Amino acid sequence: MRGAFIVIEGLDRSGKSTQTNLLHERIRASGRQVELFKFPDRTTTIGQMIDAYLRSQAELEDHAIHLLFSANRWELAPRIEQSLKDGKTVLCDRYAFSGASFTSSKGLPLPWCKSPDVGLPAPDLVLFLDITPEKAAERGGYGEERYEKREMQERVREVFKGFQDEGGPWVEVDAGRPLEEVTEVMWGKVGPLVKGVEGELKRLWVDG
Ligand code: DGP
């Protein structure tokens, strides 16, 4: 048995980080070992460049910044794999699906956007927290960062929704519902996996 690799994706204002932290706590409280990753990880050298870009303190060409986001995932992939081998559940706040959705929403071809992430550890479960731009606005609207604009979020949402058709372990969650209800829906999917899973870890966009 190895640990399960669980990715939480979602739009800005979907409650993604809150829900990921709640899951983290709940797994810990159940006495199981769990490791939390968040992308972009702004603490590394690459992550600091991404952070400056997102806060509009640096300009980078669209392909170049995309490759940095991907490199940020690759630099942490060995730690993810080790945690899984050690039997820990890995929770990951955003992953390559964000990468492909955000960059392709700028007009770059989706296959190109996916290519640098091909071969990363593949998740056993992806929970996609979906929210309409209207609901997001009710929650106080978007923040100050580069992509936090309604038009961009609408395009990103459409690309995210396309991953459902890839046939992977993709589960859409209505994140417009009250927080506790969303937590329970997510726990219904995550709870059965925290004991660990059988089988080799798959490779993203390589293994069926
Ligand atoms: P967060 O720290 O979760 O607020 O995410 C930062 C922003 O970066 C958010 O608007 C989503 C975006 N983002 C995350 N991963 C990628 C990526 O790989 N590529 C691009 N272009 N944007 C990303």
TrEMBL record:
One of its GO terms (molecular function) is nucleoside diphosphate kinase activity. GO terms for cellular component: cytosol; nucleus. One of its GO terms (biological process) is dTDP biosynthetic process. Residues 8-183 form the Thymidylate kinase-like domain. Its EC number is 2.7.4.9. Keywords: ATP-binding, Kinase, Nucleotide biosynthesis, Nucleotide-binding, Transferase. Pathway: Pyrimidine metabolism; dTTP biosynthesis. The keyword Transferase applies. It comes from the Eukaryota. Transmembrane segments: none annotated. PANTHER family: THYMIDYLATE KINASE. This is Thymidylate kinase. It comes from Calocera viscosa (strain TUFC12733). The lineage of its organism: Eukaryota, Fungi, Dikarya, Basidiomycota, Agaricomycotina.
